[in-house]
Amino acid sequence: MTETVTHTHPDSLPKQVPWPKLKRNLVAILRGIKPDEVEAIGMALFEAGFDAIEVPLNSPEPLESIARLLKLLPAHVLIGAGTVTEIEQVDALAAIGGRLMVSPNFDKRVLHRAASAGLVTMPGIFTATEAFAAIHHGASALKFFPASVLGPGGIGAIKTVLPKTTVVGAVGGVSEEHFGAYVAVGVTAFGLGSSLYKPNMTHEDVAQRARLAVAAYDQVFNAHMFA
């Protein structure tokens, strides 16, 4: 029996939605947050200097939380969903006006659907093969996940062979204490989860952690800029 091989024609690939120019490439990951607390915490993050917020879809009523953030915060704030693994989830996110889609993995079907809907995309990748595949299929940025396993050395080694314009993010086991080591190897974006927010934290707790993260980010990038 002859096996049929199908190829993706370049013209069928969706146009890449570029990563937006944010003041800081810091994405707050609010895993486990509930709709009745998301507004206070979202405002605390925005006031501290975060311009991107992700509500993972394995949180309680995530689409309701995202809808509330979209209504609350200025239009330039990048708000969307994380842990997006299915096409139907992309459709639901786009339907409520979400702009950011973050995945733990690379799935070209999900990535194509999100890009076709005009969403900013950040698929999870771990290897050079996955990185180049995600770039080819229109990823706005790459999410090296879990970053703590690869470490700055592993990510830096892959970064050297990627296109220079690639937005490289580190997510998973990363806090503000690690910014310097990752920035030194070319990482320009960070997703902060449990170091920033855990369920049942007050908005005051999150605001304090957010201010520390923003101060650390600014210090590292200012030092790197003038090094």
Structure, described:
The chain has helices at 35-48, 62-72, 87-95, 108-116, 128-136, 147-159, 179-183, 203-225; strands at 26-29, 52-56, 78-82, 100-102, 120-122, 124-125, 142-144, 168-171, 189-192. It is α/β, with parallel strands linked by helices and 227 residues long. It has a single domain (22-225), classed as Aldolase class I (TIM Barrel, Alpha-Beta Barrel). A nine-stranded parallel beta sheet has the order 5-4-3-2-1-9-8-7-6. Strand 2, helix 2 and strand 3 (78-82) form a beta-alpha-beta unit. Helix 1 (35-48) packs parallel to helix 8 (203-225) and helix 3 packs parallel to helix 4 (108-116). The longest helix is centred in the C-terminal third of the chain and has 23 residues, at 203-225. The protein is globular, with a radius of gyration of 17 Å. This is KDPG and KHG aldolase. It holds the Pfam family Aldolase. Keywords: Carbohydrate metabolism, Lyase. One of its GO terms (molecular function) is lyase activity. Belongs to the KHG/KDPG aldolase family.
- The CATH superfamily is Aldolase class I
Please state the overall shape, judged from the principal axes of the Cα atoms. Answer: globular
Estimated helix fraction: 40-55%
Task: Characterize the largest beta sheet: strand count, sense, and whether it forms a barrel.
Answer: 9 strands, parallel
CATH architecture: Alpha-Beta Barrel
And the CATH topology? TIM Barrel
The total beta strand count reads 9
Strand-pairing-aware structural class: alpha/beta
In N-to-C order, the SSE pattern is EHEHEHEHEEHEHEHEH
Alpha carbon gap, first and last residue: 61 Å
Return residue spans where pLDDT drops below 50 for at least 5 consecutive residues.
1-8
What is the total number of structural domains? 1
Rg over C-alpha atoms, rounded to the nearest angstrom: 17 Å
Mean pLDDT, rounded to whole units? 93
CATH class: Alpha Beta
Strand order of the largest sheet: 5-4-3-2-1-9-8-7-6
Quaternary structure: single chain
Helix run count: 8
Q: Beta-strand percentage? A: 5-15%
